[in-house]
Amino acid sequence: MKLPSVLSIYKALYEIYGSQNWWPGDGWLEISLGAVLTQNTSWTNVARAIDNLKKSELLDLLKLLNAKPDYVKLLIKPVGFFNVKYKRLINLLEYFKLHESNMNRFSVLPLTRLRGELLEINGIGPETADSILLYAFNRLIFVVDAYTRRLFNRLGYSWMGEVSYKEIQNFFMWEIPSDVNIYNEYHALIVVHCKNFCKKKPLCSDCRISSICTFSIQT
DNA sequence: AGCCAGGACTGAG
DNA sequence: CTCAGTCATGGC
């Protein structure tokens, strides 16, 4: 049986859920902070933390860097892991501070270089780096996450459970047209879909793309 | 009452 | 090099 193509799955999801207009948040700073805070954490908790920072008027590069650590930790407490995440936020902010007078660089420098810089920061892994590049700076890089693996696993791409992040990313970027908007929407659609229908059930019995799921293999 | 969430790092072997 | 353990809160 032939697997549904990566692009046909995108079209099916888009047909059902429509445009998502991600990232939920405004501006490169807020988006980048959210990318770190959401590591292995539900977005509702992240939204609280960001709201706390916003109300305290700390959604600002220098203000956040200069705020008292214990105070910031208190504000981001809802996300869990707040000690390590505080440190990760600071590491990232220090990096941005180095380039604060030339933020345009994030829109023009080669992608591989920027990605390398981000990955050198302690606490910034592949998914967080790519989320920042795609959603904060509109760069052409596809974001892979646990949902992506799980959904495509169930749709028959069983090899995705065993290969590296980069291999999956390369695969998607080969299959999808080089369009930032599509990369943006596709990842968002995968997350939105999986939150609703692809959680614990072995198969998507009541899944809204069940016409596609007829191809799926039990995991 | 557990289990899981839009990961990433560390230390042991 | 791989991989289990760790970080920790809120929702269901």
Uncertain stretches of 5 or more adjacent residues: none
Shape: globular
Mean pLDDT: 92
CATH class bucket of the largest domain: Mainly Alpha
In CATH, the homologous superfamily of the largest domain goes by the name Hypothetical protein, domain 2
Straight-line distance between termini = 17 Å
Domain tally? 2
What's the CATH architecture of the largest domain? Orthogonal Bundle
Structural class: mainly alpha
Helix content: 55-70%
What is the CA-atom radius of gyration, in angstroms? Answer: 18 Å
Order of helices and strands: HHHHHHHHHHHHH
Short description:
By secondary structure, this protein is mostly helical. Helices cover 61% and strands 0% of the residues. It folds into 2 domains: 6-21 and 143-213; 27-136, Endonuclease III, domain 1.
Note down, in words, how this protein is organized:
- This protein has 13 helices and no strands.
- It has 219 residues and is mainly α.
- Helix 2 packs across helix 3, helix 2 runs antiparallel to helix 9 and helix 8 crosses helix 9.
- The longest helix is centred in the last third of the chain and has 18 residues.
- 30% of the residues are buried.
- The structure holds a DNA duplex (13 and 12 nucleotides).
Spell out the key features of this protein.
globular; 13 helices; Endonuclease III, domain 1; DNA-binding; 219 residues
List the helices and strands and how they pair.
Blueprint: H1 6-17, H2 27-37, H3 43-55, H4 61-66, H5 69-75, H6 82-98, H7 105-108, H8 111-120, H9 126-136, H10 146-154, H11 165-175, H12 180-197, H13 210-213
Helix pairs in contact: 1-12, 2-3, 2-9, 8-9
The chain binds a DNA duplex (13 and 12 nucleotides) through α3, α6, α9, α10 and α12.
